[in-house]
From TrEMBL:
<dbReference type="GO" id="GO:0016887">
    <property type="term" value="F:ATP hydrolysis activity"/>
</dbReference>
<dbReference type="GO" id="GO:0042941">
    <property type="term" value="P:D-alanine transmembrane transport"/>
</dbReference>
<keyword id="KW-1003">Cell membrane</keyword>
<protein>
    <submittedName>
        <fullName>Branched-chain amino acid ABC transporter permease/ATP-binding protein</fullName>
    </submittedName>
</protein>
<feature type="transmembrane region" description="Helical">
    <location>
        <begin position="112"/>
        <end position="128"/>
    </location>
</feature>
<feature type="transmembrane region" description="Helical">
    <location>
        <begin position="7"/>
        <end position="25"/>
    </location>
</feature>
<keyword id="KW-0067">ATP-binding</keyword>
<feature type="transmembrane region" description="Helical">
    <location>
        <begin position="164"/>
        <end position="185"/>
    </location>
</feature>
<keyword id="KW-1133">Transmembrane helix</keyword>
<dbReference type="GO" id="GO:0005886">
    <property type="term" value="C:plasma membrane"/>
</dbReference>
<dbReference type="Pfam" id="PF00005">
    <property type="entry name" value="ABC_tran"/>
</dbReference>
<feature type="transmembrane region" description="Helical">
    <location>
        <begin position="252"/>
        <end position="277"/>
    </location>
</feature>
<dbReference type="GO" id="GO:0015808">
    <property type="term" value="P:L-alanine transport"/>
</dbReference>
<dbReference type="Pfam" id="PF12399">
    <property type="entry name" value="BCA_ABC_TP_C"/>
</dbReference>
<keyword id="KW-0813">Transport</keyword>
<dbReference type="GO" id="GO:0015192">
    <property type="term" value="F:L-phenylalanine transmembrane transporter activity"/>
</dbReference>
<dbReference type="Pfam" id="PF02653">
    <property type="entry name" value="BPD_transp_2"/>
</dbReference>
Length: 616
């Protein structure tokens, strides 16, 4: 895994939080603005987990911000409740419950539809706060009289009444919120979140229950928002109804975009810029309503020119400086790289048999499909196919373009539901199963067109696949250290060795050559330790040299495994497989050994059209 300096980020954050109330006032920040920045920064951490790390753009945070804040304020102003910290946590829990219910609805859709549902939800909450629930929320008056935070210690009660005391209280909770979020993003759960952001369909196909992961992150983000809402009420001594306004959600989104999504610190930096400028334009320059126009222009400029936001720009600059320093002192850099290799080998522990499963010595069919049919409207992509694969078999599937090969694979891996027919895998009927459960059972495929996690490294890609195998389809291991998952490193490194990517483990996928990406595509499927692996055109798009290398690789992968391979490169395929199935126009034409297929007149006529004779 990547080398990290433990607690460096946390230590720097503490330093910055301690220095801020003494430094920022000299730069023109009022104490109230500084406190407000912390609240927005904290709410933004939750939003960043949702948007920056999991790729879910929600405009509904105002609903949770308002609900959590109102709940805490209601307890403290309308009941005999006096414990502010308990009220904050109850407000947070309330926001979490609401987040759970809304998440169940909103997460039924993805992309723009998900975002639009969250907009609608924010509006519904705004309406509900002002109308049916106004007797509890104070309607347009909000709830006045919220006490400042206090901490009962038994013998005395600490009161946080002055701006600086409140700052200390907010900074403490900001830090706690940050540490929790850092633990989450460094956990196996956090890596699956990034997988979902990059390629949710592949994450699903690698055995992760994407919907459950999304729901948990949605609830976490709602809880951060609810906690922030509670803090706002205490800071202002009044819970304002405009917490529920859509503008609240909009500001969280904009501040995160300015500061940099997927960084955790981005929302705080964005809040610093946003709140400072809005104060400056309104109170120092007295721009009247024009401040919104100018702030809008500043927002557009920042987002256009700093694509990864302020935090992204700072991290890019730091990366460049580090790179320059390494180039300037190559002697110092080399030993580190060299040292990494033995460490990796040591991690393999010389125990190559442990992680990736091979065949179990079973005999007989591992997969049996009968009458498999897929209809797309009027088009019959697959028609009444009977197909059996035995344990330990290496099967090839060929057929002209459009013969229905990929559709057939999609049905076998439960990516698409057959129109008719049944699929029995390892003795179990999986016809109506989903792709995640099929993968968990040990049936998966590599894709004809690469489906990788592009912005992550090779190691992270393989880790995502291996996590599905080692943790099951869902695990709430939010605070577990990714480096401490048993067998994980070994499984990742064994897979990298199998697909010849050991030297590229820490390279971002976007920097790989095409052939390397194709090998990683196979590696992702392999890292799930499938008992039956389907490879959809593994040689597609490769140069002749890459094909030769990949065929050699596939031969070594094939040892002790059960594989079905689709490919158009018949010479290579016939070298690899023991038996070939030929599809034509969606139907099974013939099955046989490569020699039988080569000489079969039906195949010659219907599929090869004599071409293979020429090649042979
Ligand atoms: N989602 C879909 N909706 C409608 N038609 C589809 C869909 N997927 C595939 N088809 C059609 O089904 C037929 C079989 O497609 P499929 O991709 O399975 O063929 P193939 O043998 O894998 O082709 P190739 O070798 O070019 O990849 C084609 O006519 C294709 O256009």
């Amino acid at each position: 895994m990547t080398r990290q300096r433990p607690f460096l980020v946390e230590a720097l954050t503490i330093l910055a939080l301690v220095a801020a109330p003494f430094v920022l006032p000299h730069l023109g920040f009022s104490p109230a603005t500084i406190n407000r920045i912390l609240i927005w920064g904290l709410v933004g951490i939750g939003f960043d987990l949702l948007f920056g790390y999991t790729g879910l753009l929600s405009f509904g945070q105002s609903a949770f911000f308002g609900s959590g804040g109102m709940f805490a304020a209601y307890l403290l102003t309308q009941t005999s409740f006096t414990n502010t910290i308990a009220a904050l946590f109850l407000g947070t829990a309330f926001a979490g419950v609401i987040g759970y219910v809304i998440g169940l609805i909103a997460l039924r859709r993805t992309g723009i539809y998900f975002a639009m549902i969250t907009v609608a939800i924010a509006e519904v909450f705004f309406f509900v706060e002002f109308n049916p629930l106004s007797q509890y929320t104070g309607g347009e008056n909000g709830l006045p009289g919220v006490p400042p935070p206090n901490l009962p210690l038994g013998f005395t009660t600490l009161e946080f009444t002055s701006n600086l005391q409140m700052y200390a209280f907010f900074a403490f909770w900001y830090f706690v919120g940050l540490v929790i979020a850092l633990r989450i993003v460094r956990s196996p759960f956090g890596l699956v979140m990034r997988a979902i952001r990059e390629n949710p369909l592949r994450a699903q196909a690698l055995g992760h229950n994407v919907r459950s992961y999304k729901l948990v992150v949605f609830v976490i983000a709602a809880m951060y928002a609810g906690f922030g809402g509670g803090l706002l009420g205490m800071m202002q001594g009044f819970m304002p109804p405009d917490a529920f306004m859509f503008a609240t959600s909009g500001e969280i989104v904009m501040q995160t975009a300015i500061g940099g999504a997927g960084t955790l610190f981005g929302p705080l930096l964005g809040a610093i810029v946003w709140l400072y400028l809005s104060d400056f334009f309104q109170t120092v320059l007295n721009l009247g309503a024009t401040w919104r126009l100018i702030l809008g222009i500043v927002f557009v400029l920042l987002v256009c020119f700093l694509r990864r936001g302020l935090a992204g720009a700072i991290s890019d600059l730091y990366g460049k400086l580090r790179h320059r320093r390494q180039v300037a002192s190559p002697v110092g850099a080399a030993p580190a790289a060299v040292a990494a290799a033995p460490a990796a080998r040591a991690d393999m522990g010389g125990d190559a048999a442990v992680a990736i499963k091979t065949t179990t010595g079973k005999t007989g069919p591992i997969l049996k499909a009968t009458g498999l049919t897929k209809r797309y409207g009027g088009l019959l992509a697959n028609s009444d196919i009977d197909f059996t694969v035995d344990h330990g078999e290496i099967r090839g599937i060929i057929g002209p373009n459009g013969a229905g090969k990929s559709t057939f694979f999609k049905m076998l891996t439960c990516e698409v539901e057959p129109t008719a027919g049944r699929i029995i895998f390892d003795g179990k009927d999986i016809t109506e199963m989903n792709v995640t459960d099929a993968c968990q059972m040990g049936l998966t495929k590599s894709y004809q067109i690469n489906q990788l996690f592009e912005r992550l490294t090779v190691r992270q890609n393989l880790t995502i696949a291996a996590l599905g195998e080692l943790r099951g389809k869902f695990k709430l291991d939010l605070f577990r250290n990714l480096n401490k998952v048993p067998k994980l490193n070994r499984l990742v490194e064994q897979t990298a060795t199998l697909v010849n990517l050991t030297a590229r483990l820490d390279a971002p996928v976007s920097e790989l050559a095409y052939g390397e990406k194709r090998r990683l595509e196979i590696g992702l499927a392999l890292a799930t330790s499938p008992s039956l692996l389907l490879l959809d055109e593994p040689l597609a798009g490769m140069s002749p040299q890459e094909r030769v290398e990949t065929v050699a690789l596939l031969k070594s992968i094939a040892r002790g495994r059960t594989l079905v391979i689709i490919d158009h490169d018949m010479d290579s395929l016939f070298e690899l497989v023991g038996k070939v199935t030929v599809l034509q126009e969606g139907s099974l034409l013939v099955e046989g050994t490569p020699e039988e297929i080569k000489s079969n007149p039906k195949v010659q006529e219907a599929y090869l059209g004599g071409v293979y004779e020429e090649v042979a």
